[in-house]
């Protein structure tokens, strides 16, 4: 069965419509169910003692005073936990050369970053556990600190992990063509140094886990704020010595994730180990300082890069030298080499050029580990690429839109393989740019900009084209040996009242996964979305799947749901055909009723069919299949990733006296393939843009030379507030992927991917006449004033 | 703990229209009292020092940070949380507008955000978009990018004035 997506008047046309999210109603009434809302009988609380040093040997731990606190039950050291929980090594076979030492749930003899857990205090209340933790005496012997990224490989820099030999975690070089020769002969070569700041996700719900070990059943149950329940199931089973089938991970409401909650965290695994030791429920909720020091960080990159162009603005070559520091360990099990790897894969992405050289150097340091955060590597690659393109345009006296049109892959050239060896099935750079230029009235805005400049007001327009990697296949993690599913599944069943239940392996953290699934299932079977109940986030209940990350929920999970729904529809029609003495193909299901496909005349309500099947099966022919439940799985097979594309524009004003940037408006045109719910896609893009704007203007984790994190609170680490953010205009081009019936690609990361580059280009557009240029994010007033020469010390 | 300073305090207050008597530790924050002692888990603890607004509840008519107020300070107060405001229907239009505009994603900031929005609409019947943005700048949302929230508040402001 297929669906005639081209016909908006088709029956049950819920795919492509804005329908309400089924879970939004209870969230606005405060009826969310987050991990910290749960209380279980005999539940205790764990609080971690964390290293105050960036690097120190643990010579001894004295817990007597902590144990004397009323309510404190146990204190665990790293050695205690290591008896029941094996360490992990976060490497993947396909990232050749990646190395990382074994990491314990609680540090055993050495702490490697400020915030690493060194002991755990369990008490009957959180307050008692905190009081106890303050009284645990750890005898630390401070060791030399490796902090700086660019000197991490110098001969006189201390080696963080002696067994590793040096501080190099991973290096990859990619060569295509002869970049040196092209650069030597090019009309213009522009070079620049870019920095993106170490930042973090700041989920409003801190990391949360509640674990119970029921020894009588031999089952571990974890209620966990996670994006990937099945991955966590596998990890807990492996490291606690349990069968996977004896670990159940339940994921209720999750208060924001953005990639932060898709990783394995030492304190969360320790919580599970403690539950197993104590045989009772143990809850861990990170406090805000713990969030800043132990949630993964990301984007700590420094890049030297060059672009070569000819006289007409044709891009000839890119040369990229990326460095990133990932903290003390590669993060399990996805590893911390992916972000640098993505920079190599994605630079130059929108453009048709031939010679490409890119290198990433990934080093260890005594800081919080970094790993995948929303739009992994994209904001870095897009900033470098689009920054260079704008600089080249300025050198040539070309308009930023014109130089992009000169170089973007033609909309009719697909499929095509990029110099980075990325395979593009079908993109729409030119159509997207045309839509953007019309939406923002580009020429009108340029006139306005010139008028304002004449009045001494410095406004800038910044453009950023981008590609986005979505719908990952096993080429992302599975081929490297990680038990992370690229396949996903959905079970759809019809109950006696004619309503449907859909169980899916993808998860919900607010994106609208459940709404998206409900409308796909509704259209696939032929009922109203309100008749579909969606269940996600329980490894013991849903089909096996990867969860929600890398913008795979709609493209992978949605297609599985569509196929399961179509299969159920066929099953229902087979029963209906028997009951009505008709041909199944002459029947259809519309709005919860079996109808004649041609006339639309009602023949049988689904609740009547359900009544007969479930309660009067005796009246149906013997041997008639009557399985009103179907499961389907989906995995992509033609392309390693479904690339999407888009283009953003920022319009802003720079106060050249204060260095303050005021965002006036923002546009994004995105092509995520088939749009299932326009409102949810727009809101994903808007939310993503604002996270990108945060990285561009505000967000930066600061450390001192001793590896102390200096701004670990929401008052000191700035995230975007409502008052600073602009209104955002969103447009679409739809190029469905042919890999699936649904045709959906991802949309979750586009906003974050392109926004920082658009802002950077807009600031530099505003300041170009003043001879100032900024390339180091975030673009704080201080950095802008320094670029203007107004601060010189 | 010295004898002079009692570490347990007896309080009597009204929560969501119901009288509550309790003996609370002197250091118990209002948000913890509501969540842990009364089971009112709608408001959330997030930054725990008054920046993000996820714990915002209504105390004697004002939007107040539940993480910056002690339960002992609420003695004699009238406290409303999202649960009570939902039961009475006091902000039904605002809640409906949030759903219609998809002005929430993960929902963690939403109960506090709604209390702040209601306070704004009580004080300024028809705020401009810039005023809405400024007023809500004490309530962080990491999911939506804020625009849909501003849209929802604007819709309700106009509807309450009969302008739509």
UniProtKB/TrEMBL annotation, chain A:
The keyword Oxidoreductase is assigned to this record: yes
One Pfam entry name: Ald_Xan_dh_C
GO MF annotations, alphabetized: iron ion binding; oxidoreductase activity
Entry keyword set: Molybdenum, Oxidoreductase
Stored InterPro entries: Ald_Oxase/Xan_DH_a/b, Ald_Oxase/Xan_DH_a/b_sf, Ald_Oxase/xanthine_DH-like, AldOxase/xan_DH_MoCoBD1, AldOxase/xan_DH_MoCoBD2, AldOxase/xan_DH_Mopterin-bd_sf
Keyword Oxidoreductase recorded: yes
Coiled-coil annotated spans: none
Boundaries of every Aldehyde oxidase/xanthine dehydrogenase a/b hammerhead domain copy: 29-144
Name of the protein this chain belongs to: Xanthine dehydrogenase, molybdenum binding subunit apoprotein
From TrEMBL, chain B:
PROSITE patterns named among the record's database cross-references: 2FE2S_FER_1, 2FE2S_FER_2
Database matches in InterPro entries: 2Fe-2S-bd, 2Fe-2S-bd_dom_sf, 2Fe-2S_ferredoxin-like_sf, 2Fe-2S_ferredoxin-type, 2Fe2S_fd_BS, Beta-grasp_dom_sf, Diverse_Oxidoreductases
Entry keyword set: 2Fe-2S, Iron, Iron-sulfur, Metal-binding, Oxidoreductase
Lineage: superkingdom: Bacteria
Domain 2Fe-2S ferredoxin-type: 9-85
Presence of keyword Transport: no
Record Gene3D superfamilies: 3.10.20.30, [2Fe-2S]-binding domain
Keyword DNA repair in record: no
GO molecular function, one term: metal ion binding
Pfam families, per the entry: Fer2, Fer2_2
Full protein name: Carbon-monoxide dehydrogenase small subunit
Source organism per UniProt: Puniceibacterium sediminis
